[in-house]
Amino acid sequence: PGRVVALHVATGDLVEAGQILAVVEGMKVQHSIRAARPGRITSVRVAQGDLVDAEALLLELTPT
Question: Cα–Cα distance between 35 and 57 in angstroms, integer?
Fold first, then answer.
């Protein structure tokens, strides 16, 4: 599992492709989660400090 160490977006935010959305730490390595495309964040399913499994759904992005 990993731990969510930072969330850089909230529900309703508009994001650009490549923008960092969250940072997850696993095995003492931090991984930046970036937007694959531009869009609007429609749901954030985790909070800072949460433990998450590999490939867990962290948030939802709707294309704009």
Answer: 13
Mark 27-53 as b/e (b = at least 16 C-beta within 10 Å). eeeeeebebeeebebeebebeeebebe
The series of mean pLDDT values per 10 residues for the chain, 64 residues long, is 97 98 96 97 98 95 94
The CA distances from residue 7 to 32, 35, 45, 61, in Å, are 10, 13, 11, 14
Question: Does the pTM exceed 0.85?
Answer: yes
